[in-house]
Specification:
Length: about 350
């Protein structure tokens, strides 16, 4: 190959666009153009800390825009992607971050879906090139820090409560992992629907925090504490992001014809369930698998969740706002489960 023949070489990957496979460059040289440079959190090797470094953004293609990022939500699935447990075949290196909020020509949008952060670069960066179809307008009056976490936590809470469990005012709702990013939103939403809500937490010191969100009572302790504390109240609905022994203990404690919604396994990926309890009490188990849904379905849920947030029908609690340079600290705090509410990255600097 003659000298200079690699000039302008683009590093990229193929990804599905609904009509076939398209080539999307992950990095394209834009030397000398400060408008197309960004500071980004890059995954270079699974299991290694992210590198926060300057990158050259690719030129936007048709249907793409450059968005000035403000905030980005941090979720367990982001850490799993960094470890290679989710989307292990996605290209490296790439910028992580699958949800956030930013501005395009002065208008504020949530960025979510459409391969952002998976088959193409994500949005944990000061600027990003994203599909215009990945943008959802932020309603007036919504705090951008709260909007940044609505793609995952907000939409998951909204859809599990209203679509799967279909919570009613006469329900008794137990939220496992109630201080978590999704659990805390569910507490606020279910209580405002009129249901009686109890929140489970491993630390009794979180009682006041949860009652401020709308929980009537706290169930403190691990899975072994559930039967004694719930044997009289007997929830009709359980939201379970924990799995493991918590799932089996919750099912044993539920009222007949109860509904359990599973959307995580942070306490364990397996659970030994009594089939006799399951069928004799007419219990139903729903699994929420948002990653399997189409972008259109996800955006519909996100739009409805943003509307509910704007109308004060649910709350988002931000545990900490961390600079982009502390993205690896955010992962460490997720792993240790020491955050009450959501962790958000400040992408503005």
């Amino acid at each position: 190959m003659p000298p200079g023949s690699l000039k302008g070489l683009m590093i990229g990957t193929g990804y599905p666009d609904g009509e076939g496979w398209c080539f999307r460059p992950l990095l394209t040289p834009n030397e000398g153009d400060p408008r197309m440079k960004a500071t980004a959190a890059r995954l270079t090797e699974h299991g290694k800390p992210l590198d926060v470094t300057e990158v050259d953004l690719p030129e936007p293609h048709d249907g793409e825009v450059v968005i000035d990022m403000m905030y980005g939500g941090v979720n367990p699935v982001d850490r799993y992607r960094a470890l290679g447990r989710v989307d292990p075949g996605a290209p490296l290196p790439r910028t992580l971050g699958a949800e956030g909020v930013g501005t395009v020509e002065g208008a504020m949008f949530v960025v979510f879906g459409h391969n952002v952060g998976t088959a193409r670069d994500g949005i944990w960066a000061t600027k990003a090139v994203v599909p215009r179809s990945a943008l959802v307008p932020v309603p007036e009056g919504v705090d951008p820090r709260h909007a940044a976490v609505m793609g995952v936590a907000g939409a998951t809470a909204w859809r599990t409560v209203t679509e799967l469990a279909q919570v009613r005012p006469d329900d008794r709702v137990l939220v496992l992992g109630a201080t978590g990013g999704v659990g805390s939103v569910i507490v606020s939403l279910a209580s405002r629907l009129g249901a009686s809500v109890w929140g489970q937490t491993g630390d009794a010191a979180n009682a006041a925090w949860l009652t401020d969100l709308g929980a009537e009572q706290i169930v403190a302790g691990g899975a072994e504490a559930l039967p004694d504390q719930l044997h009289q109240w007997r929830p009709t609905v359980v939201f379970d992001p924990l799995g493991g022994a918590f799932t089996a203990a919750a099912l044993e404690s539920m009222a007949p014809h109860g509904r359990l919604v599973s959307f995580g396994t942070s306490a364990g990926t397996t659970s030994t369930v009594s089939m006799q309890t399951l069928y004799s009490s007419g219990l139903r188990i729903f699994g929420y698998a948002g990653l399997l849904d189409s972008d259109e379905v996800l955006h519909q849920g996100l739009t409805e969740a943003l509307r509910a947030l704007a109308e004060r029908r649910m709350d988002v609690v931000i545990d900490s706002l961390l600079p982009l340079s502390q993205v690896n600290e955010a992962f460490a705090r997720l792993e240790s489960r020491k955050a009450n509410g959501k962790l958000v990255l400040d992408l503005r600097s």
